[in-house]
Write a structure and sequence with these properties.
InterPro entries: Bact_CCA-adding_enz_type3_sf, HD/PDEase_dom, HD_domain, NT_sf, PolA_pol_head_dom, PolyA_RNA-bd. Belongs to the tRNA nucleotidyltransferase/poly(A) polymerase family. GO terms for molecular function: metal ion binding; nucleotide binding; nucleotidyltransferase activity; tRNA binding. By secondary structure, the chain is an alpha+beta fold. The chain folds into four domains: 131 residues, Beta Polymerase, domain 2 (2-Layer Sandwich), CATH 3.30.460; 104 residues, Hydrophobic Seed Protein (Orthogonal Bundle), CATH 1.10.110.30; 165 residues, Hypothetical protein af1432 (Orthogonal Bundle); 69 residues. 51% of the residues lie in helices and 13% in strands. It is built from 22 helices and 15 strands. The strands form five sheets. It has a seven-stranded mixed β-sheet. Strand 6 and strand 7 form a beta hairpin.
């Protein structure tokens, strides 16, 4: 029933006189017919006893939180967290327990867990232990707190965000009492670190049902809470994501849009492949719509949001920085948002000019190709996510995708793509800034089609440049001075 390394740990504990159970998410996933990502074991053995067992049976093990009763075992290359049955007491830190009491009974350990679907256990023989009705809730797609939901959320303020994440990952409906308790627990969010909240937001983003998770975050008010961040040794509170909550109910011009900004955004996110940068871009691509200075009326007197992509890219930069999204990811997201409204017609000359304009933002053609592919993917989702009569533009987007791939195979966009290296140019002109100027000139001529990308033709063109002529004059003058 379990992988061999897990079986070994369960057997080792049982034969040493201890209780041992697979608990938590692995149980939930097995009952859903999914392959668990990880296995956690709960036992009545204390941390020091676990370490002694590992030493006696020559297994690699190390404390992963010994104060909280957690020891990691490494068995046949697999890491298995083994935790002592425990109850937790939370204090100022809204996620990390202040005190842990070790227990002797499985049911007591399961009682301190967050939701019934996570409060089940399998013993080594595969018998299910389910004191809180988790299996029935799982079969009904219900997410319910274990016991008193207010107490569960007071214990750990990250649990409301986990509820939204489970709704997004598994499609659960959150039970009414549990949902109401999330609203009452919002003041505890101020004690959470921004890094923990960002991690939950990204897991919601990458889930199969992100719109459900973000709807719950908005409905419970979690998007509009604040959390703590530490910068240069100073602690401050920062907003979670109120800019996203603001989009709810913001209307759009019905001539072009079938939904308000929130509904459109959610549809675009769900149409995007589960890539972190792409989904952040989808979530924030219209973040500036409806803002003062952006929302206006067009010549017909209809709603319009001119330059929302430019203002939105600046807003996204601030949001992603505040949430501590990785610099590489944030940079790509901001770029995608800034460019998501401007595309050339699918004609070679226009596309080459467009790619040439975009190319300085990237170090090489591979990076450029990846970014442009993402940009066209975002555009497709944007069109499918609620634009009125998008068929013609979708067909144009597909033609553009094909043409971009073809051009990137044939047309050089960086000096390194030329059949003539900078080293050869330097032999003619000497080292210095003139090498780059000449390479850029040759590159443009190849892109325009007036010069083939062939070493002989490029070298011949090089000897006809003004830079080369000036170099020859300078060289000759130097010889004359030496003769004198």
């Amino acid at each position: 029933m379990f992988p061999v390394p897990v079986e070994k740990v369960l057997q080792l504990l049982e034969e040493s006189g201890f209780q041992a159970f697979v608990v938590g998410g692995a149980v939930r996933d097995i009952l859903l017919g999914r392959a668990p990502r990880e296995y956690d074991v709960a036992t009545d053995a204390r941390p020091e006893e676990l370490l002694r067992l590992a030493q006696r049976f020559r297994l690699k093990a190390y404390p992963k939180g010994a104060a909280f009763g957690v020891i990691s075992f490494l068995v046949d290359g697999m890491e298995i967290e083994v935790a002592t049955f425990r109850a937790e007491v939370y204090g100022a830190d809204a996620h990390r327990p202040e005190k842990v009491d070790f227990l002797s009974r499985l049911e007591e350990d399961l009682a301190r867990r967050d939701f019934t679907v996570n409060a089940m256990a399998f013993d080594r023989q595969g018998q299910l232990h389910d004191p809180f009705g988790g299996r029935e809730d799982l079969s009904r797609g219900i997410l319910r707190a274990v016991g008193d939901p207010d107490e569960r959320f007071r214990e750990d303020a990250l649990r409301p965000f986990r509820a939204c994440r489970f709704a997004a990952e598994y499609g659960f409906q959150v039970e009414e009492g549990t949902c109401a308790a999330i609203v009452r627990a919002r003041d505890r969010v101020a004690g959470l670190s921004v890094e923990r909240i960002r991690e939950e937001l990204e897991r919601i983003l990458l889930s199969p049902h992100p719109a459900r998770g973000f709807a719950l975050l908005r409905e419970t008010g979690l998007l509009s809470t604040r959390c703590r961040a530490r910068t240069a040794g100073k602690e401050e509170t920062v907003p979670v994501l109120p800019e996203l909550a603001r989009l709810y109910g913001v209307p759009q011009n019905p001539r072009y849009h079938a939904y308000d900004v929130w509904e459109h955004t959610m549809r675009v996110v769900e149409l995007i492949p589960p890539d972190t940068a792409l989904r952040w871009a989808a979530l924030l691509h219209d973040i500036a719509k409806g803002m003062p200075g952006v929302r206006t009326l067009n010549k017909r007197g209809e709603l319009a949001d001119y330059r929302h992509e430019q203002v939105g890219s600046l807003m996204a930069k601030e949001i992603l920085g505040r949430l501590r999204v990785s610099t590489t990811c944030a940079r790509r997201v901001v770029w995608l948002i800034r460019h998501h409204m401007t595309f050339p017609p699918a004609k070679e000359a226009n596309v080459v000019k467009w790619l040439r304009r975009l190319s300085p933002d990237f170090k090489d053609r591979e990076e450029l190709a990846g970014a442009v592919t993402q940009l066209l993917t975002l555009r497709e989702a944007d069109l499918r996510g609620g634009k009125v009569r998008p068929e013609e533009r979708l067909a144009e987007n597909e033609r553009l995708r094909v043409l971009v791939a073809d051009i990137l195979m044939r047309v050089p966009l960086y000096p390194a793509d030329l059949a003539l290296s900078g080293r050869v140019v330097a032999r003619y002109l000497g080292e210095g800034p003139q090498v780059k100027r000449v390479l850029d000139d040759l590159l443009q001529r190849v892109q325009e089609g007036s010069l083939p990308n062939e070493a002989e033709a490029l070298e011949k063109a090089l000897t006809g440049t003004e830079s080369y002529k000036r170099f020859l004059v300078h060289k000759e003058n130097g010889r004359a001075r030496r003769r004198v």
